[in-house]
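User: Hi! I'm working on a homework problem where we have to compare a predicted structure to a textbook description. Could you give me the structure for the chain below?
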Amino acid sequence: MADRDSFEQSPYELPPGSTEVVLVRHGASEAAVVGARFPLFDGHSDPALSEWPGLGQAECVAQRLRGEEIAGIFTTSLRRTQETAAPLVAATGIEPQVIPELREVFLGDFEGGEYRIRQGRNDPIIQQVFAEERWDAIPGGESWQDFGARVSAGIEQIVERVGPNTSAVGVVHGAVIGQLCRQATDARPFAFVHSDNGSISRLVVFEDGRWLLRAFNDISHLTVKTGPAG
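Assistant: Happy to help. Predicted structure tokens:
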């Protein structure tokens, strides 16, 4: 029998000219309390991380990613992403950069913690949001089309800043991750909206502008898991 060429399976490698964006959802934030609104930053709810499990989840993320080759660390202008990034920043010495376009979806009249309270009470408007898969079912809420355009612009900024053949970490928000994963896969608007706090998803941006979703909602590194709300 004649010899044949042999080709073994090999690990995934970034295609030449591409950039990987490691999307981290921030750790769990402090509880919403009826009658005590979250502070706002540019109109967006701006709670801190909870002491537990939020800060613990941030430490787990740092332990998971500290050994990877990271060309840049990016956060949003909201402090729960900055506090989540802090242990990784300390471990790597990489100065974080803020991408305002990657801030959470704007929830209109339900900012300040109202969204989470209403979700906990199974409010009919929250039911409508998920039944119709649109954030602008909330009075004053952002449409998923406008939201999609701005978070795409945010990813483009990361790719431009770190350059090709690199990996960057973006510590962002649940709806942001859902929107980016939707765009990468051409899925329905809320197909990926339920990522966990402290989870890791991986997006590859090719040299020609195409996107590839390599991983979604990896939580194997977390000792405590929390759900999608807020």
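For your comparison, note the following. Strands lie at 19-25, 40-41, 44-45, 72-75, 97-98, 166-172, 200-205, 211-218. The domain at 19-37+49-106+142-218 is CATH 3.40.50.1240 (Rossmann fold). Good luck with the assignment!
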